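Much of what follows relies on a compact textual record of a protein's fold. Here is one such record, which you should read through line by line:
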Amino acid sequence: MKAAARTALACLDLTSLNDADTDADIAALCVRAQTVHGPVAAVCVWPRFVAQARAALPASIQVAAVANFPDGSLDLQRALADVAEIAQAGGDEVDVVLPYRALLAGKTSEVAEFLSEVRFASRPLALKVIIESGELGTAAAIAEATRLALAAGADFVKTSTGKTKTGATPEAAAVMLKEIAASGLPSAGFKASGGVRSVADAAGYIAQAEAALGAAALNPQRLRFGASGLLNDIESVLSGRESAATTATY
C-alpha cells in the first residue's frame, strides 16, 4: 500500500474549489502541497488564485486552474477568458469542462470546435479536459467524449468536476483508459477526480492505468488524481499508520 501511496502523492493535484475559498485557504493549501514525504504534482484552484499559488510554490509544483467550471456550458468566450486569466497569472495547467450537456444533445461538432479553440488558446499550458463521466452516463458517451478530448489535443482526460452526484468510477476509468490506449498518443494521460478519498481508491486506478497504458505511465506526466482529502490518507499510510479512510469507489 505504501507504493500506491507514493505514486498517488507524486501524481496528486491537491485541490480547493470551494465557492467561499479565501486567500488564507489557498495559502494553507500551498503549505499542505509540500509534505514531509515529498511534494504533490500540482495544486488546482480558481483562476483568481493562480498568481498567489504560483508565488507561494516552488517551480516543481504545477499550478492548475479551472475553466468553464463547473457547469460546462458551450460559452466559448467565457472559457477563453478563463484560459487567458490563468495564463496571464502564471498558471501551468488548465482543467476545462467539456460541454457535456451539449454533447448529450447531439452537438458533437460544436463541442469539437469548442475544445479545439480552447486547446489553441491554452498552449503551451497543459490541458486537462473534464468529461463529467457520471453525467454522460453510458460507456458510449464516455468513449465519445474521451475521443473528442484527445482529438482536440488534450494532455489529460479527467473523469469529473467533483461537483456532481457521481465522480470517478472504475467503470468510467476503464472506458477512458481504453480510448487513451487506442489513440496511440504516447503522452496522453488520465486523471481520476471526484470521490477519490483513500489510498485504496488510488491503488485501484493506478492498477487500471498500468494495465491499460503500462508501468511507464505511472507518473505525473500521464496520471493524476484530483482530490482535497486524499492527501490525509496518503500521509497516514506513508507514516506507517493504518489507512484513515474508507474506500469510496473500490
Q: What stands out?
A: The chain is about 45% helix and 15% strand. The beta strands are 12-15, 34-35, 38-39, 42-45, 62-67, 93-97, 126-130, 156-158, 189-193, 223-227. The chain has a mean pLDDT of 96.
